[in-house]
Structures are given as structure tokens and as C-alpha cells.
Amino acid sequence: MSDADKPTFIPMNRINGISNRRRMPIIGKIRLGVKVSGPSGFYPKETPHFVVPEEVAKVFGAQPKELEVMFVSNDPTVNCPQALRWYGESAGLQCIGNNQVARRLNQDTWKTESRSCPCEKLESGECGPRANLIFMIPKVSSGGLFQIDSSSINSMEKINSYFDFLALTLGRIAMIPLKLRRVPVTRRREGRPTTHYPLELRYEGSADETTRHQQETETVLRKIKMLEIQEPIEINPVLDPGAHVVMEEELEEDPSPIPAESVGELGSETHNPAIPPMSTPETAAAKAPEATPPPAGPPISLAQTNYLLRLTKDLPLTEDEVRVKVRALTQREASGLIKKLLAEDFSFFTPSPNAPPATPVNTGSAADTMTDPQFKKIMGLVLSMGIPEPHVKTLTAGYTKRQASTLIDQLVSGDFSAFQEMKEEELPILTTSGTVPGEAEPEF
Known about the structure:
Strand order of the largest sheet: 2-11-10-6-7-8-9
Helix content: 25-40%
Number of strands: 17
Distance between the termini: 102 Å
């Protein structure tokens, strides 16, 4: 038998197109905040550093603000997939979309169905943008990847822009040593500066290293061609079982879930470093406070602001107008204002002190009643705090769609103060006939 007639032996221990694929697993998650255990339950709080697992902490420290990373794929959509996501009240993903079309899980058939995107859940705040950044930390492990979840649009824009920059200057994204950082960004929210810590990528290679990376582009892309990355780990952030839990007393900063404020920026608004004398509640109620000098004492708390919004909901003022009028008050001034409102003295907001509240202004769609999906979203966000549904209904009674949307934004950003009970010493005491004039009264 000639060699041509001999049967060709083909090994059957590999499947072409499957056995030659390599999938990199996700071996850990890095978080951008902690879950704080307070008197009213749990609430999330953003941190200025990465919250890392033990193996990362051994290399970069317990609270690193910078990590040395690499991306194993040259596809930006694989390294940082981004989508509109809705979790509902379950731990898993219920719907995912791209602002054009979405795939939603049918609870009856347990199959995904296509539908248009966005829908009413994005408007109500139940759905929102979310990104999964997936990368390797060579100094920690070369056998797996780490994942960071973020709902920050600022972070998404920064990362997408830097991917384009790397592709333009180096010819690729994959296997380039980069620095991943938390960089503070301060913006004004309701007249006060708030600081967040979005993600930022940086390449710090020398000119020689840049030339070498450019020359190796073709070789690197050929080697990673068959590499695949595990699908992102999907978990409802409200129900994240791996979140790092801390007690309020363990926090180094203010335990309030409100984002940190930049005190220096507040002081920079005025050239006069002297602190003006504290005004009394009566003075504060007689005229609107000036915004230029820094407050002489702790600024009005969110619990006080929410209480004032409830007391003024029948006045011919929008919620924004009320916030503007009270945002520069100190806690002492706000306490005095609450007393006056409870005594039906509306002079702070209306020309006549005893004028009855007028019919609320029709503000269009913002005046519509809060929808059921909005209330369900609020309940889902406060689930981890253990707040009973009747309590939530009481606090949100009479909310408009706009108010509910604002509350949802606060909860998503980690601000749970709307559901924190006001302490007994924070409640103003009305003067009665038995009160001694000039007797000291509790303040906030």
C-alpha cells in the first residue's frame, strides 16, 4: 500500500474553534465604596479610595487610590461594557438596553424578550447606566481579572476617551501598563460643593517604552486573538453580598451618607476670613439669608431640609424655590424657622406672616403624583436599611413625580438621610405660656 493510500490520522482530542479558545476568569471585585451600618440600618457611602480584597491590599495597601492595571482585550466594549440596567427587587439583572433596544426577562416564561429602549423605568429612576471595568493587575495575579462596577457617567466618559487616546497614540489598548486612579472632582449641588471620585486612566511610559509598545502591537494582537473574557458578574448593587460593611463610628470622615464637602472651596468664596456673628432664628426668618459669607455654625441638615419641604408643601412655591431660600441657613436658624412654620408663621416665605397657604402652583408634569414604579424603586433602594414600607409611605406621602425622582437620585448616590429619623434633641420646642422667657432651647 502506497503512502497516498494510507488513511490520514486525525486526532479527536480537540475541537476546532472551541478547544483553542482561552477564557480569562474574573477572580475578584474591587468596589468604590462601603456599606455603612448606622442607627437606621445600612446605607452605601462612596470612598475616596478603592475598596480592595486582601490579595490586592497586600501589594497596594488597604486603601489605595491608584492601581497598576492592564487590559487583556483590545476591544473597549469587552474591557468596559456599558448599558442601561434594571435589576428590580431581585439580585439578578432583569433588563439591559442600549438606549435603542433592550432585552427584558419575562417573569412568566423566564425568557428574554426584545423591546424598545428607553422606557418609563429610566424616567422613574428604576433603570440607570452602569459600567463594568474588567482588567488584570499583574503585580497581584496574572491568572485572572478583576472587576469594578460604576454608575458614574463621568467615569464612563473618561475611560472611553482614554481608550481612544491609547489606540491613536500606541496603536492598541491591550497589554499596555496603565495607572487606574480615583481622582476627586468637586462640583456644586444645591449651592454646596460636593466631591466625588470618578475613575481615571493614565499612561506614564517613557519615549523608549512608547516606541517599543508601538513596535510590538502586531505581535501582541496576534497572541491575544483567541483570548476571551468572562462575562461581567451581574449583581444588584443594593443586594451586593460582597460589599464591605463598616460601622459608622469606624468612619474616619463624617458618617453622613452625603458626599464629602470641600470646606476650603467654601471659604474661598469670600476674601474676608473673619467669621460673622451668628444670627438668631428670628433674624433668619425675617429675611432670606445671604449666600456669600460662610455659615456661622453647622449648615442645615438634610433631615431639616426634608422637614421644611413637608411643612411648606401647601405654599405657592416649588420645591426648588424652597431649597434656594433655606440652603444657606445654619442648623440653629433652620430650627428657628421650623418653630415659626409650626406656629403658622409663614413670613419667611410669604409677605404676610399669617397669610394662609395659597393653592399650590401647577408646575405641569412635576406636580403629578408619584408613580407606583417610582415608589417601588424607592422601596428597592431602602431595602437594605430595614425600613418598613408603612414608614416609607408616610414619609413620601404627597410626593410629586419630580420629588420622587429627586429622592431616587439621592438614594442612588448614597444619600439616605431622607429616611433618617430626626433626633429628639433636633426637634424644635414651641414656646408656651409656661416657658420661661430667655430659657435656653435645644437646637440642631
